[in-house]
Amino acid sequence: MIWKPHATVAALLEQDGRYLLVEERIKGELRLNQPAGHLEEGESLIEAAVRETIEEAGLIFTPTHLVGIYQWRAPETGATYLRAAFTGTIERIIDNAVLDEGIIGPVWLTPDEVHARLHQHRSPLVMDCIEDHRAGRRYPLDLIRHYAA
Predict the structure, then answer these.
(1) Quick one: which of 65, 62, 67 has its CA closest to 92?
(2) Closest CA to 14 of 65, 74, 69, 87
(3) How far apart are CA 96 and CA 98, in angstroms?
(4) Which pLDDT does position 92 carry in this prediction?
(5) Which of 40, 56, 104, 133 could form a cystine bridge with 35, CB 3.0-4.6 A?
(6) How far is CA 135 from the centre of its chain?
(7) pTM score, whole prediction
(8) Under the phi-then-psi rule, with left for phi > 0, alpha for psi from -120 to 50, and beta for the rest, what region is 96?
């Protein structure tokens, strides 16, 4: 059997000292995450980050930089996730956006508010990505090469 990690993306958006997170219900529990999700067949990492931000926050997001690549093994399932986290700008809000199932909606929180809700984070990547963004970690998008079929 071939082992494969789950390829995922996340959008790190900050405005006026607050970070965009999404509240979602997972197995009946309220969780926090960045707009994030799995890479779909045929799309680039950047395209996936744009799509996930639309689906989970109702925002048109333009990535400008890669913040980091994160590898995490979920202790409860043993699944490994490989996350590419991007920062950028919000181009516009989609009026009456229909969000993915389970998503309650977007919230803007200060880093202290995010930290105060650690028990609700979907993974440790939520806070780590914010801390890296706050530390000024930014890498050019041309670091990533996507070869379309």
Answers:
(1) 62
(2) 87
(3) 6
(4) 93
(5) 56
(6) 17
(7) 0.94
(8) left
